[in-house]
Amino acid sequence: MAKITLSQLRHSYFDQPRGPEDYALKQIDLDWHDGGAYALLGPSGCGKSTLLNIISGLRTPSEGRILFDDQDVTHLPPDQRNIAQVFQFPVIYDTMSVYDNLAFPLRNRGVPAAQIDKRVHEIAQMLEVEEMLNLRAAGLSPDNKQKISMGRGLVRDDVNVVMFDEPLTVIDPHLKWKLRSKLKELHQRVRATMIYVTHDQTEALTFADQVVVMQDGEIVQIGTPVDLFERPAHTFVGHFIGSPGMNVLPCEVKEGGAFIAGQQVALEGEIVGGKQGQTQIGIRPEYVSLGSDGLPATVKKVADVGRHYVVDAMMGEQKVSAIIKQDVPEPGQAVHLQFKPEQTRLYRDSWLATAAREASAS
Ligand SMILES: Nc1ncnc2c1ncn2[C@@H]1O[C@H](COP(=O)(O)OP(=O)(O)OP(=O)(O)O)[C@@H](O)[C@H]1O
């Protein structure tokens, strides 16, 4: 396994890009550590496939370098990069048995038969497909075919990285949760460097130790699932992760404080950065509550989502969502919204602009 470094990487599909908008990848500098479990998360069109194809060697970047450990592989073809890839749809040989499918990548490399046998059984056991080893792949369900595809990706222990490109697309919804946690467990056992590409926050947050969030060809935040939830560095991360996502509310900044509709809103910490730019308050629905005072609003909608209620309230034209467990208001009711100060952040031009609250001395 290897550490992967992406250095000053940029890619445009145009021969002569005129500006940043012509770049599918704007500027990527990133280290993927040896043995890490990473997710690349972002909406359709943000550049995930472009980045994956550059790492696997299917595309050469317009600018910048890719290093595996310290070897520059920017211009190496895919077959010389020693990478395993699992795609959206199963890639297996229908006419072969499950055993032969799993053994194939090892036989190709001339691994001795006894070693192949041991490894195939190990992987089959991890994926819980041992009883299928002698079956012909053609007869398997799409779920099981994809499991075998994953097994083929994991069977070699000498690859630099295993990359998963939306691997649960064909999996039945009720089996998805099972395979999601299985993949996490597999990483803990195999300890390979893994990159999991997805637009699904649940898949990314379940699998990865570190999640790389992309938007419009740029990385907006790299962090643990908890970091991304607790302290989004960019309003896009706040909005994209969470259900419902973070409320992003225009505000005015004056005298070192933030104001909505003339009322000061307490923030997590000091306001940092410059003075220019559009300012917004970011507060997750989990940290909005209803009280006897606070920002006046009118309840628009109340949805029972099982474990709690999602209350949408309007402050003028601005919708604010709150997650409420009890004392649920009625639509049309006048309420006051309170924001938990240590979870209330200022964003300037979409980037976080409050300093983290210092831990209080005990
Ligand atoms: N072969 C291509 N030629 C021209 N433009 C492309 C090509 N492939 C991708 N793009 C553009 O590059 C940008 C990034 O696309 P990319 O496929 O990398 O995003 P993605 O996040 O993987 O999206 P998806 O999940 O839909 O594949 C998009 O604007 C897309 O239209």
TrEMBL record:
Query: What Gene3D superfamilies does the annotation carry?
Result: 2.40.50.100, Nucleic acid-binding proteins, P-loop containing nucleotide triphosphate hydrolases
Please give one Pfam family short name: ABC_tran
User: What keywords is this UniProt entry annotated with?
Assistant: ATP-binding, Cell membrane, Membrane, Nucleotide-binding, Transport
Q: Ranges for the ABC transporter domain? A: 4-241
Give the GO molecular function terms. Answer: ATP binding
Give the record's family classification.
Belongs to the ABC transporter superfamily.
What is the protein's name according to its record?
A: ABC transporter ATP-binding protein
